[in-house]
Amino acid sequence: MIACYGLCGATLRVRGRQARSLSPSQSRAVLQLSLVFVVSVAAGNAALGYIHVSFAQAIGATAPLWTVLLSVLLTRRSYPRLVYAALGLISTGMLLAVRGEVNFHPVGFALVLTATLTRALKSILQGMLLSAADERLDPIELLYHMAMRSAAALGLWALVMERGLVHDAGARSIGLWLCVGASSVVAFALNLAQFLVTQATSAVTLQVLGNIKVVLLILLSVAIFGNEVSLQAAAGCALCIVGVVLYNRATARKPDAAKQQRV
Fold first, then answer.
1. Which of 193, 207, 227, 238 fits 221 for a cystine, CB–CB 3.0-4.6 Å?
2. How many domains does the chain have?
3. Roughly what angle, to the nearest 10 degrees, separates helices 81-98 and 53-60?
4. Is residue 118 part of a domain?
């Protein structure tokens, strides 16, 4: 997140702009967004100490449904029934596609569910900040203001949970820090892309695209590496694609529904 802060600042300078100061209400909203993001990252990483990645992916696949439910609860917005049906198909398809050995652990399940819920909540909060009628933020500005707040909270988390790395000789490896630097640039591009997609579409569409990413990775692994895919996984991918087509029809045929009109 420190790299995101620096790269956002550099991008703003190249564009001949400076980040605007936040109003008190914007500052509170950005702080909430940052804390939700930190909880999502921390809970997701901690969950992998108790459960397998396949189980975590299966629970995470339900994020679009949680996003809709939280959006209805927090913003009082309605969605056509076809959207619920489409998201149900997408989530079911992803559960089939990534389902592996389910090593259930109550702590791990609670953590991964927390990570999924907070990821959905983050999508909604950032959508509200990017589309506010009176205090709308630019994606670069939002990431700029969010980055340092998130970095401070994540730094405290790392000091508490990974303080042993301070004395680890491997942590001083040049190769490791080159990888960290490269991943930081990728993280900047990913976060910015998420904000841009949310601004152009919606929080729900962002979560749907996240599931499509998994399907594309499975297809690429088959095409490039010749990996075998089970019949169940293939059926799950097909079901997910059908759900995406239905979701696209549900939002395209009714512009008002796509904009999620208030009840």
1. 227
2. 1
3. 170
4. yes
- Position 5, amino acid: Y
| Cα separation of the two ends of the chain | 37
Does some domain include residue 124?
Answer: yes
Lookup: tokens for 101: 């050995």
Here the tokens at position 48 are: 């992998």
| 135 contact partners, CB below 8 Å, separation of at least 6 | 23, 25, 26
Judge residue 113's burial from the number of C-beta atoms within 10 Å of its C-beta, 0-12 exposed, 13-18 middle, 19 or more buried.
middle
| Closest to 55 in 3D by CA, of 9, 10, 101, 90 | 101
Tell me whether residue 248 is in a domain: no
Q: Which of 254, 253, 250 is nearest to 208 (CA)?
A: 250
pLDDT per residue over 155-167, tens digit each? 887 777 776 665 6
Domain that holds residue 137: 2-72+99-158+176-224
Q: Where are the beta strands (DSSP E) in the chain?
A: none
pLDDT digits (tens, 9 = 90+) for 1-20: 888 888 888 988 888 888 88
